[in-house]
Amino acid sequence: MSKDPLNFEVPTQMRQFAEQSVEQARKAVDGFMTAAQTGAATMETQAATAQSGARNVGQKAMAFAEQNIANSFDFAQKLVRAKDVQEVMALQTEFMKAQMQAMASQAKELGSTATSATKAAMEAAKPKV
After folding, report:
1. Cβ-based neighbours of 121, under 8 Å, separated by 6 or more
2. The whole model's pTM is what?
3. pLDDT tens for residues 4-58?
4. Residues 76, 23 contacting (CB under 8 angstroms)
């Protein structure tokens, strides 16, 4: 062995061990990056599914609000044309009954849409095997 410190030889076994360590570290990092990319893609899918479901619920709610407002204006127009108190009371009773039925139906439909959106988001969250 030479006494010159600049001419130091690294033993073959040590080089092989270092190469193996670097290769193992590379594989571990590659595995981590693959898992991180898969996780990010899953989160994107879940977010898109949840956003779509929320958008559907919001659109239905707006459509129902527009429908209810239109019904209210129709009711107000009928009230203006009423000839007496009995007709006003009959119109009021009819309107209230129709609105209660409409609201029950709308609540049921919104609930169903929200449930479907939640199920879809949960399906998107399940790991793919």
Report:
1. 46, 49, 50, 53
2. 0.64
3. 666 778 788 888 888 899 999 999 999 989 988 888 887 888 888 888 888 888 9
4. no
Tokens of 66: 């527009």
CA 121, distance to chain mean position in Å, is: 6
- Say whether pLDDT at 87 is over 90: yes
Burial of 41 (0-12, 13-18, 19+ CB in 10 A): exposed
At 87, list the tokens.
């007709």
- Residues 6 or more apart from 46 whose CB is under 8 A from it? 121, 124, 125
CA neighbours closer than 13 Å in the CB half-sphere of residue 8: 3
**Contact between 105 and 71 (Cβ < 8 Å):** no
How high is the pLDDT of residue 92? 95
CA neighbor of 60 nearest in space, from 17, 99, 113? 113
Report whether pLDDT(124) > 80: no
